[in-house]
Structures are given as structure tokens and as C-alpha cells.
Amino acid sequence: MRPKRNWSVLLGAAFLMATSAVGPGFLTQTTVFTQTLTASFGFVILVSIIIDIGVQLNVWRIIAVSEKRAQDIANTVLPGLGHFVAVLIVLGGLAFNIGNVGGAGLGLNVLFGISPEVGAIFAAVVAMGVFLVREAGKVMDRFAQVMGLLMILLIVFVAATSAPPVAEAAVRTFLPDEIDIIAIITLVGGTVGGYITFAGGHRLLDAGIKGEKALPEVATSAVSGITVASVIRVFLFLAALGVISKGLVLDPANPPASVFQLAAGNLGYKLFGIVMLSAAITSVIGSAYTSVSFIKSFHKGIAANENWVIIAFIAISTAIFFFVGRPVKLLVLAGALNGLILPVTLGTMLVAAYNRRVVGSYRHPLWLTIFGVIVVVVMAWMGGFTLVKQFPELF
Length: 395
Prior knowledge:
With 395 residues, the chain is an all-alpha fold. The chain has a single domain (4-394), classed as Amino acid/polyamine transporter I. It is 81% helix and 0% strand. It has 17 helices and no strands. Helix 3 (41-66) packs parallel to helix 9 (181-192). The chain is globular, with a radius of gyration of 20 Å.
């Protein structure tokens, strides 16, 4: 039997990945797609969950077996590729962290009426505080677990209050009236795109859970992470579906807040503030930690002062939000690049799975390879399509 402390790390990595995925964008996407597809959105969620699990199992297994971080694996496959991937991850993480900080400020604005800018600073200070303690890794694990469970409980309550048509949702999950491919790709990119893919895998590596013998634990943690994110997604979907099925109209300026308020009145609106704050601040922590993990192997000074570099990352994100606001064009471009990061990184991992310099004598399951190749092709096409459509001036 594994030591009990391993279970704490496994759950911590799972919740770090899940809460990194569940940010302000996650809440809005889920609500908007439910409004568009109604009960058939259940099918989109089901397909995205299957894809997410395949992606995470591929990536986390290779990280564990190689005992290297993703950027070092990439540099082994092709010199310089790891640096290129690290730049994409850090820039994408920084751009999205601006939105995460803003989301945390919005949550505090809903709860206490303070301005989003002041709220963002307060939330950033709390996030920085996690990395000021000696056992920062353990505190981060516990913080992610507590915030994740809090979000689940509150969203389940709101879903029950909205009284959704559960039977119809169950039927349309397997027999949808409409299939939206773009919605599937968006959900996949939002759950396992960019830095999120590696949040838990790098955390397990830092905690010493690595090597081929650790693969059962790695798989458990990976699937648990997707499960946590999916539970939040499903109940938020049901909450929104319950409101929409009654013919109520969501506020286009803030769809998720509308769901909570229409389902449970002013209490629901305050609960939205808590959920938004929890989702945003855990995403701030996950983004900062994972982004820095992509550059710390390039210089000894970064590794030696990792926590301070993470704190600086959060501070820069907050300063940009405070002085510039949410640079919409930058966030859209970062989203499009995020769609390209997954096929590049997953494709690199699949090549590494058959490189003896990376994995030694390890044999990667064929079904995971086939699954991964399909995801790489589809996500590469959609990422390119999004870039061309949103930024024709670049081409």
C-alpha cells in the first residue's frame, strides 16, 4: 500500500488541474453554450470528457515515465522545441491570468461591492501568500482541494434550485438534436489546452511521483482531475438548463451570474460571487505555478527562487489588469494560440513516447497513441482555422 501522503499529492494534482481549468472563461463558456444548444449540450460535454481523459493520460504518463518536464522532453525530441513551447505557454498563461485576476476582482465586487480593480489586487495578494509559506506545494494542493469542493457544493445547490429537466438532459446527452463541433473543440481547449494540460503532471513530478511504477497513481490522478472539472461543468450546465427551460432570459453581459440570480435570487447572486472568486483565484495560482514550471529548468536562478518568480508572475498579471484592463485583442489571440499549443505539445509527447532517449524501455499503449494522433489533427485544424478567421491580417 502506498503511503497516505501520496493520496494527498494525487488529489492535490488532480484539483490543481481541475481548478486551473475552471476559471471565468469556463463559467461563461458553459453557460453560453447551454443557452445555444440547450439539453444537447450534454452530448458536447460527454465527448469533451472522453477527449480530455485521452489527452491527460497521454501527457501525464510520458512526463512520469521520462521523469522530465514537458519542455525538457520537447528539447530532447528536437533541440529548441522546448524553449519554443515554453514561450507559448508562458505568454498564453500570462494573457489568461489577466482575465483570471479580473474575474477574482469581479467576484469580490459581487460579494462586497468593492471595485473590481481593488478586488483584483486583494485576490492577487491572497494568491501570492500561498507561495510565501515554506510548504508552498502542500498549501497549494490543499487550497485547490478546498476551493474545488466549495465550487462543487455551491453549483450543485444552484442546480437543484433551478429544477432542470434532468431526464431530457440525459436523453440528449446520447441522442442530441444538434452536434456543435466548435463547441467540443472550445471545451477541450478550455479544459486541457495550454498550461492546463501540464499543471497536474508537473505537480506530481515535483512531488516525486514518477517512474513507470507510479503509472497507476498517475492515471488515477489524471482521471480524477478531469472528473472534478467535469462534475463542475455538468452541474453548471444543469443549473443553466433549468433557468433556460423556464423561458427566463440571461443577461448577455454576465450569463453565469444571471443563472445563479434567476435560480436562487439575491442569495444566488452572492453565491455566484463566491464561485467566481474561487474559480478565478485557483486559476491564478495554477496558471502562475505551471507557467513558471516551464522555465525553471532553463536557469538555476529560476529554480532556486521559484516561488518568488511565481509571485512576480502574479504581480505582473495584476498590474496589467489594473493599469490596462482586459486587453481583448490579446486575450483572443492567446485563445487562438492556446488551440495550437495542445496539438504541438501533445504531438511532441506522442513522438517522445517512442524515443528511447526519453522513455527508455517503456512501451506506450497503442490505443492512447491512436487517440492522441486524432486529437492532434483535429485541434491543429481548428486552431489554424480560428487564427485565420480572427486575425486575417496576419496571413
